[in-house]
Write a structure and sequence with these properties.
112 residues, mainly alpha, 6 helices, 70% helix
Length: 112
């Protein structure tokens, strides 16, 4: 079995998804909102479910704005290969910084 890690991420698809979400201000704000919604529904320790929610919302957005976001689909490639757990954990971390979570809240997420 080969190592598919890419730029510190589990694979290229996960890296590309995060790169698009983190490097565009509008997408960044949407991703934070999607993360907040998922954390409220599933909890801050449900990395996979949070990540799956982010991927589903992003994929739906790309479908809705097919021509405007065609390069996103090209860059990500296969949505099913995105590591939802890794993506969710990363975005929960970003949300904790933006929303200024308490030290106990942060430890409850990163300590698990």
């Amino acid at each position: 079995m080969c190592d598919e890690s890419y730029n510190g991420w589990s694979n290229r698809e996960t890296w590309a998804t995060n790169l698009w979400l983190a490097n565009d201000e509008s997408l960044y704000e949407l991703a934070l909102e999607w993360t907040r919604d998922a954390v409220n529904e599933y909890g801050s320790d449900s990395f996979g479910l949070v990540g799956e929610h982010i991927v589903n919302m992003f994929r739906d957005l790309c479908d809705e704005f097919r021509s405007e976001l065609a390069s996103v689909r090209d860059d990500v490639g296969s949505w099913w290969r995105v590591d939802c757990g890794e993506l969710g954990r990363s975005w929960i971390g970003s949300l904790s910084e933006v929303d200024d979570w308490s030290a106990a809240e942060i430890l409850s997420v990163w300590g698990s």
